[in-house]
Each structure stands twice: as C-alpha cells, then as structure tokens.
C-alpha cells in the first residue's frame, strides 16, 4: 500500500474542513451496537473516530446497544432469550443481566476505550439524573420501557465540560424501577430531545438495500416518503424496520440528516460525515 505522505495528510485534512464546520457545535447522536460492536479492535477504532469528532468541536453523544453481549451473558446463566417484534422479553432476572451488561460491562468498556485514547468520556444510563423516564410498554414484554420524556440536562452539562456522554439504553419509571429499551429507540429520542443536527446508526450492513443480499443495491438517499413506500413494498424488512422507523423519527423530530452506515467499515463515520464519499444510506425530509 502507498505510504501516506504529509502532503497527502494535509490534503485530506484540508478537504475535511468545510464538513467539520457543518457539524461544529452541533449535536451528533451516534448509535453503536449489534454485531458491529463485537470486534474489540474495531470498537477502539470507532471510539477514536468519535474522539476526533469531539476534539474538532462536534457535540458527540454516543448511545450504545449490546444485544449480542446480553445474549451471551444470559446463555452463561442459562436464562433463555426471547424476542417479540425485535424486542427482548424482559422479566426481572433478565433485567438484572441487561443492567449489568449494558450499564456495567459494555458502557464502562467504551468509556475506558475513550480514556485510553486520551479522551474524556462519562458513562451514564437513563436512571442517572432521572434522564430517561418510561412506563411499561406492554404486559407481554415485561420490563421493556416506552419513553415518556428525556431530560437532556445531564448530557448538555457533561458535553459543556468537554466529555463525550456514553449512554446505555435503560430507563426508569416513576417508582424507580429500571426498564430495558431498544438502543435505536433511545438514540432517536435523544436526537429529538437535543434537536440534534444528525443521527448516525452504525450497524453491520452497508445501509438500506433494494436486495439485502446484493451489496451493489445500496440506496444512497431516502426521503421520509420513499422510506415509507419501501416498507410498504416489503423491501425494508426484519431488523431494518425498527431501525428505519427510528431514523424517520429523528428526521421528523428535526434532524437535518440521518445515516445508516456499516460500522464494520474502518472509519465509516468519518468518511460519511467528513468527506463527499457517501458510504451508507442518508435519510432526509
Ligand atoms: N432492505 C434492507 N436493507 C438492508 N438490510 C435489511 C433490509 N431488509 C431487511 N434487512 C435486515 O436487517 C438487518 C439489520 O437489522 P439488525 O440485524 O437488527 O441490526 P442491529 O443488530 O445493528 O441493530 C440486516 O442485517 C438485514 O438482514
Ligand atoms: C428492549 C430491547 O430489546 N432492548 C435491547 C437493548 C440493547 C440493544 O438494543 O442492543 P443492540 O443495539 O445491540 O441490538 C436488548 O435487550 O437487546
């Protein structure tokens, strides 16, 4: 591979300046989770990219998932994982594990990655500061929360001190009971509450495809109306439905652009936000 010369580096950085300006002082909510988060080296590289965005003045908020990690912890404890419409049926023992894994292992692991890279990060879940208030979504799902309100005070405060807030998708009801929430949903609601410029959902597929098994069928841009049409046609299916719904929710809440990108592509978020090479699917009004 060609050696990157200083001249080439300068050229790359100069080309990024107008894009950096577009996001400086704006909230960018990043959802990171699922299978894109299982490789430790890739995870560090994503944290490095987020730190870079934070250092150039972008108000980065990281919302993480951890479905595969929860599954493996439940397996070890011989607790069965059950899903309905993509949501984990969460009884009390399952909720204990969800909280241990998300707010403990995964959250502190991501914070440690950023700290190791020389950055500042604070790990929070929706219980902290009574940030994500929920009620029970429905009796069949157990302790799965429907979000009523997000108080962004804590997020804004830590960002004003230079920290990257790292949020786990756990909420709390009026009795102090903890609830499990899908991380894409939390990202979209946080983006809405912060009036974020952008939300980026990092997953392990390139974006929305016309044919999900054909990588050349990626759809680079979708309006809200076009996305709704593709859902009706059944082209957007399975796990992509709730993800696209969250993207549309963020757009309808005021985000200018929302992206689904493949977090397994090295530096995908920098390429998507700071260059003119679109990688994934961009949603616009
Ligand atoms: N039109 C489509 N384009 C891309 N992926 C699709 C489409 N329809 C269904 N899918 C499926 O949705 C999956 C993404 O959702 P999911 O696995 O739940 O993501 P994550 O684990 O990152 O939250 C893809 O791996 C793919 O199998
Ligand atoms: C209610 C519900 O399903 N919560 C999710 C929360 C984690 C998540 O969303 O993780 P990914 O983004 O990695 O899928 C769960 O228990 O798996």
From TrEMBL:
Span of domain Aspartate/glutamate/uridylate kinase: 26-262
Catalytic activity of the protein: N-acetyl-L-glutamate + ATP = N-acetyl-L-glutamyl 5-phosphate + ADP
InterPro entries, sorted: AceGlu_kinase-like_sf, AcgluKinase_fam, ArgB, Asp/Glu/Uridylate_kinase, Glu/AcGlu_kinase, NAGK-C
Leader sequence residues: none
EC id: 2.7.2.8
Cellular compartments annotated: Cytoplasm
Pfam families the UniProt entry points to: AA_kinase
Highest taxon of the lineage: Bacteria
GO molecular function: acetylglutamate kinase activity
Pathway in which the depicted protein is active: Amino-acid biosynthesis; L-arginine biosynthesis; N(2)-acetyl-L-ornithine from L-glutamate: step 2/4
Biological function: Catalyzes the ATP-dependent phosphorylation of N-acetyl-L-glutamate.
Protein name, per record: Acetylglutamate kinase
